[in-house]
């Protein structure tokens, strides 16, 4: 009486895929039935076949990234190209595994675009330091920067990986979170397959997805997957399986959640109308929140913010006056840390300093999410603007000596 007939049918279906309920181990790659559903989802999305044998279910996308980097990095002489600003998972994991992070800087003036010339310069500099670059990371849509890569940009990246013989790690966990129509999400795999031979046969690509983002936001479930392309050597695939086997199996309830995510209710299902209404409503609200936040930041003194095209974050640049830089130095704080702490004390708004993600020397940012309730967003941005404009005026006038 509590659940609709299609919900009971789906629960029965997923229980039938297990070897003994949610408490039983699965294959180290995940339940074969769920991997088949993931493959079908990828094929619907991209228009190209996907092999369940090349799909691994994981305890969140982060665990998948760590597994792949563990197989790629042999020591300090191995470098991984990572976008800056970057999600700290990458810098932390590369450091933990004893590898070398090779940064390539996104161009803020071009809406955090990626210039292949910068990639070449980064590789050249790494080679001059005796580092062999073995893989490249892209985050699309971007975290913390919120940009969406165009198809043309993805083609350039794939050609670059082909010429440099790099493994491409496609972090695509925000693929459902798109807030504009000019640059819809397109997967690295689709672009690679569209390019045809020799690229599709030789570029080694691993793509990641998760249940933590989109309109689900089930971060605590820790469900994810990665898909490998057929171009990865067979021996490497076996090693990846061996690494996954160390943990026996990913958690089974999150595997089932992944199945639910990739095979959502279809027309004719009892739940279809409700599912469509709720999921569409969440994404439309996030789109409005992205605009409110971007417009709010750009109305502030000494703040410049690119529009959040995708993902869940805003990453405004905070142009701090000399007085604030002096006050931060006196307090023994990094300038953007100093600013974010003052903001927290004055308003209760908690943000992350841009220095936690990497940024160009002398340039400062903060990252915040667009996730506060939509009805609360105008008040939050008014509170931010009031604090920021007073901060800028006071530190401009007092040369760092402030009672704030």
Automatic annotation (TrEMBL):
<dbReference type="GO" id="GO:0004021">
    <property type="term" value="F:L-alanine:2-oxoglutarate aminotransferase activity"/>
</dbReference>
<comment type="pathway">
    <text>Amino-acid degradation; L-alanine degradation via transaminase pathway; pyruvate from L-alanine: step 1/1.</text>
</comment>
<keyword id="KW-0663">Pyridoxal phosphate</keyword>
<dbReference type="InterPro" id="IPR015424">
    <property type="entry name" value="PyrdxlP-dep_Trfase"/>
</dbReference>
<protein>
    <recommendedName>
        <fullName>alanine transaminase</fullName>
        <ecNumber>2.6.1.2</ecNumber>
    </recommendedName>
</protein>
<dbReference type="InterPro" id="IPR045088">
    <property type="entry name" value="ALAT1/2-like"/>
</dbReference>
<dbReference type="GO" id="GO:0009853">
    <property type="term" value="P:photorespiration"/>
</dbReference>
<dbReference type="Pfam" id="PF00155">
    <property type="entry name" value="Aminotran_1_2"/>
</dbReference>
<dbReference type="GO" id="GO:0047958">
    <property type="term" value="F:glycine:2-oxoglutarate aminotransferase activity"/>
</dbReference>
<dbReference type="InterPro" id="IPR004839">
    <property type="entry name" value="Aminotransferase_I/II_large"/>
</dbReference>
<dbReference type="GO" id="GO:0008453">
    <property type="term" value="F:alanine-glyoxylate transaminase activity"/>
</dbReference>
<comment type="pathway">
    <text>Photosynthesis; C4 acid pathway.</text>
</comment>
<dbReference type="InterPro" id="IPR015421">
    <property type="entry name" value="PyrdxlP-dep_Trfase_major"/>
</dbReference>
<keyword id="KW-0808">Transferase</keyword>
<feature type="domain" description="Aminotransferase class I/classII large">
    <location>
        <begin position="8"/>
        <end position="382"/>
    </location>
</feature>
<dbReference type="GO" id="GO:0030170">
    <property type="term" value="F:pyridoxal phosphate binding"/>
</dbReference>
<comment type="similarity">
    <text>Belongs to the class-I pyridoxal-phosphate-dependent aminotransferase family. Alanine aminotransferase subfamily.</text>
</comment>
<comment type="subunit">
    <text>Homodimer.</text>
</comment>
<dbReference type="InterPro" id="IPR015422">
    <property type="entry name" value="PyrdxlP-dep_Trfase_small"/>
</dbReference>
<dbReference type="GO" id="GO:0042853">
    <property type="term" value="P:L-alanine catabolic process"/>
</dbReference>
<keyword id="KW-0032">Aminotransferase</keyword>
